[in-house]
Amino acid sequence: MKKLILVTLFLTAIACQKKDQTEKPAAVADEHTFSKADLAVVKHLDLDIKVDFDTQTITGKASWQIDNISKGNEIIFDENTLEITKVTLGDEEKETKFELGAAVEFHGKPLHITIEPNTTKVNIYYKTTKDAVALQWLTPQQTADKKKPFLFSQGESIWSRTWIPCQDSPAIRFTYNAKVTVPKDLLAVMSAVNPQKKNDTGVYTFKQDKAIPSYLMAIAVGDIEFQAIDNRTGVYAEPSLIKKAAWEFAELGKMVGAAEKLYGPYRWGRYDVLVLPPSFPYGGMENPNLTFLTPGVIAGDRSLTSLLAHELGHSWSGNLVTNATWDDIWLNEGFTTYVEHRIGEAIFGKKEFEMQNVITRKELTDNVAELGDTSPDTRLKVSLTGRNPDDGISMIPYVKGYAFLRVIENAVGREKFDIFIKSYFDAHAFKSITTENFVKYINKNLIKGDKTLADKIKLEDWIYKPGIPSNITPVNSVDFDAIDKIQKSWRETGIKGLSQKITTTSEKQYFIDHLPTDITPKEMEALDTEFNFTKGGNFIIKRQWFIPSIRYKYTAAYPAIEQFLISTSRTGSVMMLYKEMAKTPEGKVWANKIFDKAKSGYHATTVQAVGDLLK
Q1: Is position 74 annotated as part of the catalytic site?
Q2: Which label site among 78, 83, 200, 373 has the fewest CB atoms less than 10 Å from its CB?
Q3: Residue 521, C-beta contacts closer than 8 angstroms, at least 6 positions apart
């Protein structure tokens, strides 16, 4: 970012934050929390914990400032696999009764704590266990540098309750301070204002003065270094990766600036990224102030940094304005995919924007085809009652949500839609909203009773009905049209020289995704010789190439496929390959053999997803 945002805008944003954070949350029916926020709700957390790598546990105290709205005698927290040792009330630490309710699959247990009508503070003493889904403890061998252990957390969707007793709903927001004690040779970072170098004590303090939901609580501890990119962005990584990461993400400041021009000031202070070891289960996680990233994004040519645009976009859609329940996740991911594409257009140009539109459309049609166009899971507003809310984190809320917002943009014009989105972010800043809140807001502030416009947009069809509505906006790319012509002729004209015509990541991905269905292993080998797909460094290209390699039995790529599946834990990416393997009996045997080798390095959520697939 070349210039700081105007001081007046900054001060206005801060004033808005303070006002918004004092408001009480609206009562929301969230099936995935035991807490009853309309009776007693948390407001602020003071966390004091010690990270012990020898026992792989976190021990400490969570002191919650609460609002006992009903002036009742109980507050309910969520916990899952924690050991609760003691609960006290107030600064005087008056011991009180607590009781754990019956366990519910995926959800853990309700923690019932006896309070008094005037209670404002609850202190929970606890210890994590090895069953904490949110915590990934890595041995030195599982890290990039292979010298020191590493810990990271992943709270989305309902896993923060496995490392902190909390009211674990995206509708409940709170601020926090933390004191974290770690081994003296390691650095701790959190989803807050962070230190930029190790100290001599191993004790680090953190402050998050913006109200966030529990799933955005995050911690990482390891042999981590920091390198600044500009005055408010920078990179954390292991020593061997820090220079590569800083070079790869050199345009991070420009991305923040591009997003601000579109959607208003960035309200979180710093925007840094942390490159994690390969067992991280996602491409990225939008933890406030500090995005967690897969090392797979470091391609050596900045070709995959568009992933950052998505995680940055969450600073507006998701972190600033949050889905109130996991049934409403499209409000996070659909809006963020839209913001990602708009940031990408500003940074990488219109041609790349058009190519990404075509790729995203294919993801939508493929996912709807896989689920079935009458499946309720192809609706934007889903129902996850009685289910693991992680089941709602498919590609549908991302790509169908994006397609829906493009329909609205097309109906009203980009200029008018930009004004609407910016006002939407401002109106709901630091709040959590439902789909119904959104529908009410867009009807009042954009559609305004205009039946012709309403018929153009078809809100009900997009949000509440399965499949793909008929008014979806067409997509096209001149660059991809040229690749379509190449696909029709390369068998006659020859493969040599194709790599000079198909050069970008998007172009290569499109070419691979549209290979002829009767392609032979010999032709695959010739393409591999020309493009070096199997041994190349680009994570996305390798993943896409390995799908037809499995499908068309290009055995020369099999060792690289196995290594790929062992060396990464990105759930969505490994599932793509395991699904392709599982389509044949021999492929399923192969998949199980690889999974047996790989699962010790996978995140718990990845193990569960792949294990369910291969049963």
Answers
A1: no
A2: 200
A3: 552, 553, 554, 555, 556
Residue 334, Cβ neighbours under 10 Å: how many?
Answer: 24
d(C-alpha 122, C-alpha 112), whole Å? 12
Q: Measure CA 181 to chain center.
A: 27
240-247 long-range contacts, CB within 8 A, separation 24+: 240/144, 240/145, 241/144, 241/275, 241/295, 241/298, 244/298, 244/300, 245/273, 245/275, 245/298, 247/302
176 phi and psi, to 5 degrees?
Answer: -155, 150
Q: How many residues does the chain have?
A: 615
Environment class of residue 478 by beta-carbon count within 10 Å: exposed (0-12), middle (13-18) or buried (19+)?
exposed
Distance CA 57, CA 594 (A): 29
Give the DSSP H or E segment for 88. strand 83-89
156, 238, 311, 580: which is the annotated catalytic residue?
311
What Cα–Cα distance (Å) separates residue 613 from each residue in 445, 571, 579, 610? Answer: 44, 12, 7, 5
Helix (H) or strand (E) holding 67: strand 57-67
Burial class (CB in 10 A: 0-12, 13-18, 19+), 397: buried
Sign for the pseudo-dihedral over CA of 14, 168, 161, 576? negative
Q: Please tell me the distance from the alpha carbon of residue 467 to that of residue 463, in angstroms, as a whole number.
A: 10
Q: Half-sphere exposure (CA, 13 Å, Cβ side) for 191?
A: 26
Rounded-to-integer distance, Cα 98 and Cα 88, Å: 9
Please give the biggest Cα pair distance in the chain.
Answer: 83
Q: Strand 290-293 vs strand 271-275: parallel, antiparallel, or unpaired? A: parallel
- Taking only the tens place, the pLDDT of each residue in 457-495 is 999 999 999 999 999 999 999 999 999 999 999 999 999
Question: Within a 10 A sphere around the Cβ of 449, how many other Cβ atoms?
Answer: 8
pLDDT in tens, 518-531: 999 999 999 999 99
Match 């939508």 to its residue by tokens: 364
Q: Could you tell me which of 385, 386, 381, 411 has the C-alpha nearest to residue 396?
A: 381
User: Which pair of structure tokens corresponds to residue 137?
Assistant: 């403890």
Q: Which of 176, 338, 398, 602 is catalytic?
A: 398
Distance, in Å, from the CA atom of 210 to the CA atom of 20, rounded to the nearest integer, reads 10
β-strand pairing of 225-228 with 233-237:
antiparallel
Say if CB 305 and CB 297 are below 8 A apart. yes
User: What are 532-589's pLDDT values in tens digits?
Assistant: 999 998 999 999 999 999 999 999 999 999 999 999 999 999 999 999 999 999 999 9
- Angstrom distance (rounded) from CA 556 to CA 330: 40
CA dihedral 465, 467, 471, 475 (to 10 degrees): 140
**Would the pTM of this model clear 0.90, i.e. be above it?**
yes
Query: In 3-state terms, what secondary structure has residue 40?
Result: coil
Residue 209 DSSP one-character state: E
What number of CA atoms fall less than 13 Å from residue 452's CA on the CB side?
2
Residue 398 annotated to the active site: yes
Percent composition of the chain: helix, strand, coil (DSSP 3-state, to 5): 45, 20, 35
195 in Cβ contact with 220 (< 8 Å): no
